[in-house]
Amino acid sequence: MGDGTVTTVSSNGTYSFSKPNRASITLLAGLGVEGDVHAGVTVKHRSRVAQDPTQPNLRQVHLIQSELFDEVAEAGFQVAPGDLGENVTTRGIDLLALPTGTLLRLGAEAVVEVTGLRNPCAQIDDFSHGLLKQVVGRDADGEIVRKAGIMGIVLAGGEVRPGDPVVVELPAEPHRPLDRV
User: Fold this and answer.
1) How many CB atoms are closer than 10 A to CB 59?
2) Residues facing 90 on adjacent strands
3) 51: part of which helix (H) or strand (E)?
4) Segment 66-124, tens digit of pLDDT
5) Which end of the chain is more exposed for a tag (fewer CB within 10 A), N or C?
6) Which residues contact 174 (CB under 8 A, 6 or more apart)?
7) 166 sits in which H/E element
8) Closest CA to 156 of 123, 95, 119, 109
């Protein structure tokens, strides 16, 4: 796994599908993105809160590789960083191929532990009709493939800016593939 770069950072203090781009975001250990509606020790995504509001928040930070935007553009969809609600957009790392427990060092201090895949929902089609089929599909074996990014928890806080390096640290083997969280 190679290292990459942060291309864009985004956050929003109110519930909305997309998140505005920022000059920087601050990650807070055990919580997520400072000032973001999804920050917290327990779940903040509305569907998860409805199921059980005491669940641990394994979705503190949402990351998407910018290569996904290139891919959906080839299918005629215009998607920009922050549009799908991610906090960190990267380039140069196949985020979806990372195993569970991978550490991502963002910038000088922040560390995010990868917890799993984002489970895309119908709101993606509300954003752009037909886009959901571009970010969720099936592989040759009929298994579901989720491409709308990965989720993680903040182990070490710090400021993250566009242009910051992303250093990948794989966990000890055997590696566990990502599953939806």
Assistant:
1) 23
2) 6, 65
3) helix 46-51
4) 999 999 999 999 999 999 999 999 999 999 999 999 999 999 999 999 999 998 888 99
5) N
6) none
7) strand 165-169
8) 109
C-alpha to C-alpha distances, 71 to 17, 77, 104, 138, nearest whole angstrom: 21, 9, 23, 16
Coil vs helix vs strand at 147: coil
Cα separation of 85 and 15, whole Å?
10
Per-residue confidence band for 1, with pLDDT thresholds at 50, 70 and 90: low
Q: What's the DSSP call for residue 95?
A: G
The three-class DSSP label of residue 71 is helix
| CB distance 84 to 151 below 8 Å | no
Distance CA 84, CA 78 (A): 11
> What's the pTM value of the predicted model, to 2 decimals?
0.95
> Using the 8-state DSSP alphabet, how is residue 124 labeled?
H
> What tokens appear for 150 in the block?
């990965």
Tokens of 47: 């569907």
DSSP state of 47: H
Beta strands in 20-164 (DSSP E): 21-22, 25-28, 32-33, 61-65, 88-91, 103-106, 110-117, 136-138, 144-146, 150-156, 158-160
